[in-house]
């Protein structure tokens, strides 16, 4: 979970995740949305993939990226655990 929070701390990576909410995209399609080099985007994708926030799938000569919703469900479940329980200490 530490890697996921580290990955989410960067605004560029959060924007990449927002882009992937709509549909699967290739690295080139993602890079077209930013004013930075393709190697920089590749580094962001590598970090997101290492944190298991995205997954990559080879499609012909391209690699398509999509969200790994399982990790997001785990993060949400963990965060929601703070809203449950005994309110007597409030």
UniProtKB/TrEMBL annotation:
Keywords: DNA-binding, Transcription, Transcription regulation. Residues 1-87 form the HTH arsR-type domain. Pfam families: HTH_5. The keyword Ribosomal protein does not apply. InterPro entries: ArsR-like_HTH, HTH_ArsR_DNA-bd_dom, HTH_MetalResp_TranReg, SdpR-like_repress, WH-like_DNA-bd_sf, WH_DNA-bd_sf. Gene3D superfamilies: Winged helix-like DNA-binding domain superfamily/Winged helix DNA-binding domain. SUPFAM superfamilies: Winged helix' DNA-binding domain (SSF46785). PROSITE patterns: HTH_ARSR_2. GO terms for molecular function: DNA binding; DNA-binding transcription factor activity. The keyword Chaperone does not apply. This is Transcriptional regulator. It comes from Halolactibacillus halophilus. The lineage of its organism: Bacteria, Bacillati, Bacillota, Bacilli, Bacillales.
């Amino acid at each position: 979970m530490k890697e996921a929070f580290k990955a989410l701390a960067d605004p560029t990576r959060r924007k990449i995740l927002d882009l992937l909410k709509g549909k699967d995209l290739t690295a080139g399609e993602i890079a077209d949305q930013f004013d930075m080099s393709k190697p920089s985007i590749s580094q962001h994708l590598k970090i997101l993939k290492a944190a298991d926030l995205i997954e990559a799938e080879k499609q012909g000569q391209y690699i398509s990226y999509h969200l790994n919703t399982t990790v997001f469900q785990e993060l949400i479940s963990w965060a929601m655990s703070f809203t449950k329980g005994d309110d007597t200490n409030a």
